[in-house]
Amino acid sequence: MTEPPRAVFPVRDASAGPADLTLTPAGEPPRLRADAARNRKRLLEVAAELAAERGAANVTMEAVAAAAEVGKGTVFRRFGDRGGLMLSLLDHIEQQIQAAFLSGPPPLGPDAPPLERLRAFGPAVIRHEHAHRDLYMAAHREQSRRYNPSYQVRLTHLTLLLRQVGAPGDVELTGHTLQGYLDTVLVEYLLTSRGMPVERLDAGWHDLVDRLGTPR
Amino acid sequence: MTEPPRAVFPVRDASAGPADLTLTPAGEPPRLRADAARNRKRLLEVAAELAAERGAANVTMEAVAAAAEVGKGTVFRRFGDRGGLMLSLLDHIEQQIQAAFLSGPPPLGPDAPPLERLRAFGPAVIRHEHAHRDLYMAAHREQSRRYNPSYQVRLTHLTLLLRQVGAPGDVELTGHTLQGYLDTVLVEYLLTSRGMPVERLDAGWHDLVDRLGTPR
């Protein structure tokens, strides 16, 4: 989701809804940008809270505007429509787990040895996606988005760690296999429909990583 | 897809469309059943041919009726609607691969040792689903059908073979991992979008089975 193009010195367009003077103080482009980014982030945090409380299906543009105490037009200008809001929200949530495994503290982040990072990756992703399951499940319903940039970031991360631990064989395919184990829909099926405890999934992940990650 | 309930001595219902005397000769229930099953099978074979030639999206009730040289009403009575026809067709196609791995010749079928059967399963499924990819891809678009009876049949088969080869660890989860590698959408992504040769996927499968199937 890219920001809609915005004029540096915006001309008021009556069709765009009520003016949002906080976000677009004409003539101050640098502050405007910083403010806009901050405000966008705040709207996403509000939306994430609403999604956690009520479920993603109940997060409307109106509800976000009311909870953030801004005009409805502000939310529409930021995200275009509800689909845009949901994509931005998923992106925002996904960035949290990305930050954790790319630059967070050990055992997920770069200060731990690669095998420990690999072992920590599965349980972290399972818990993260389960906490935001309605958002991830909704995203997976759009099959075209399955091999999206988030999937590729995770794949690159996993194949890098696999190379670091000296994994044998075709590490790209092994990366896909590991991602398959963490597939949102599979994990929800196992946890919810099959009633498996999450610790069983953790143990299965550790075994999988140990078997696929280390030379025979 | 179950057959719609049918009276043993059917009373002609004008709303059901033109009479199909070949399929429902009143008063001969045994022959009627056998004929009906045979005709249903023939309609599915015609539909499968049409799907292979034109793509599943272009298989209409009318096209099947024309190609099978029966009345359109016959096709509607057999399958209810186009969704019913597609489900029956997928079921018919899936039964071919099920027959191959449950009771077919080696190395897939029961006369081969279990590790050979496991190794043969991946390449066979990859080729089978790729040959019928638009049907399988369409089925996967309906997420609710992902852990359907066909998935369970394959899972039972894989976990049985894994137990037979003495696979360590959580064989049920290993079965899901193996199925994840063969996921229709993943395989099509790797073959089509990533341009991988199918032999690379075969080799990855063999490596995966060897690593997950045998004690360390």
From TrEMBL, chains A, B:
DNA-binding region, as residue ranges, is located at 60-79
Q: Where is this region: Disordered?
A: 1-31
Per UniProt, residues of the HTH tetR-type domain are 37-97
Q: Which InterPro entries match?
A: Homeodomain-like_sf (IPR009057), HTH-type_TetR-like_transc_reg (IPR050109), HTH_TetR (IPR001647)
Specify the domain of life of the species encoding this protein: Bacteria
GO MF annotations, alphabetized: DNA-binding transcription factor activity; transcription cis-regulatory region binding
Which controlled-vocabulary keywords does the entry list? DNA-binding
Residues forming coiled coils: none
Q: Which PROSITE patterns match?
A: HTH_TETR_2
What name does UniProt use for this protein? Transcriptional regulator, TetR family
Species of origin: Actinacidiphila glaucinigra
